[in-house]
Amino acid sequence: MKYKLIALDVDGTLLTDDHVLTPGTIEVIKQIAEQGTEFVLCTGRAPLSCIPYMEQMGLDDYAITHNGAATISVKDGSVIHDFSLRSEGLERYIHYCEERNLHYDLNTTFRLYVKGAAGLSREALDMYRKFLIEPKDLTERPADDPFVKMTVSGDTPLMDQVMEEWNTWTHEFNVLRSGDYFIDLMHKDSSKGSALSNLAEIRGIPAENVLAIGNYYNDLTMLEFAGLGIAMDNSPQEVKDVADVMTASNNEEGVKLALQKYCL
């Protein structure tokens, strides 16, 4: 078996647009895991928002969460590595969002906080529930639980506008478009690629024995790192250009088809 570590993005890759993990995909992943291959979910989600999918697949390996800001052992919930943010550096971004009435949240490794959580709109609550998240009010955060990610969300034209304006700023953080509706701010050294590289080194697995599948700009670094980087058919062209090969879309079980082809 050439590939000893398989990294999978979650939204737009492993899951369908309806956030479904198909039985066929589960079965193929279980077959490969039985051969001794380790799996890691590489996602912008928090641990509690992605580990249930690992459990659904019968896996207890790893989760690279918050777009590389925190790597978790699924087996025991321990933190293998995380990047905390300087809270003072976030103030200008928070001020920008509040001045324009943009929705934002602040994430520690295991919790998501929102200012005025009790007054969130039904639309915002529905969004969080899709991602298996129950937001807490910002006033509830313990002082010793550092932030690892800030996320700004809104419709695509609005996020396009925010990115256009923020691209004129000098940033101390990694400012990343993680989806059509999301912009993430993380530590400057935080990315899926760097976290995957770190995990592979810990596990003693060379890059050529790593396979990665993703569909969006936040997946570029892990597709570049992996010995085989696979882009979903629903990826933007820039992602397809970086990948080594293509597979079908997330709604056509592209992950299952790729793993059958290259790992079974």
TrEMBL record:
- Give the InterPro entries listed for this entry: Cof, HAD-like_sf, HAD-SF_hydro_IIB, HAD_sf
> Could you tell me which CDD domains the record lists for this protein?
HAD_Pase (cd07516)
Q: Which domain of life is it from?
A: Bacteria
> Which PANTHER family does the record associate with it?
HAD SUPERFAMILY HYDROLASE-LIKE, TYPE 3, PHOSPHOSERINE PHOSPHATASE
Name this polypeptide is given: Sugar phosphate phosphatase
Protein's organism: Paenibacillus aceti
